[in-house]
């Protein structure tokens, strides 16, 4: 059976603000099937002006703090881009895509379900690297 792809209704270009974009990212990641022990925070990084669009870049940083280690040894970042087309009508929904730290693969919310394993893999590889150094 195919995994259900969870998505949200994304805002239109004419209703977009940086703050609303961050709220929408938070709303979207609340649909992800991740264990309750994961904590995250998000931030706006920058605005990018392109010929046919404007892109807004955000980062969501994930970790699993514990009682024994309230400051996690490593974190995993997911980078989001919200793109507003200059050629489509202003009432068109924004385009959204995200990449994981240390990966070039571009994910679109409507195309793939998020996998918690991606976050675990990033953190595990960082811990292995730190132990080798």
TrEMBL record:
Entry superkingdom: Eukaryota
InterPro entries associated with the record: AKAP, AKAP_28
GO cellular component: cAMP-dependent protein kinase complex
GO MF terms, alphabetically ordered: protein kinase A regulatory subunit binding
Ranges that cross the membrane: none
Stated name of the protein: AKA14 protein
Encoding gene (name): Akap14
């Amino acid at each position: 059976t195919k995994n259900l792809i969870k998505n949200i209704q994304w805002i239109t270009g004419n209703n977009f603000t940086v703050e609303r974009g961050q709220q929408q990212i938070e709303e979207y990641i609340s649909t992800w099937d991740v264990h309750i022990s994961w904590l995250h925070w998000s931030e706006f990084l920058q605005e990018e002006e392109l010929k046919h669009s404007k892109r807004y870049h955000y980062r969501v940083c994930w970790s699993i703090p514990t009682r024994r280690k309230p400051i996690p040894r490593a974190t995993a970042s997911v980078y989001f881009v919200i793109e507003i087309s200059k050629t489509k009508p202003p009432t068109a929904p924004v385009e959204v895509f995200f990449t994981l730290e240390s990966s070039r693969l571009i994910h679109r919310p409507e195309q793939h379900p998020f996998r918690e394993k991606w976050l675990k893999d990033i953190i595990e590889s960082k811990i292995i690297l730190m132990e080798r150094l």
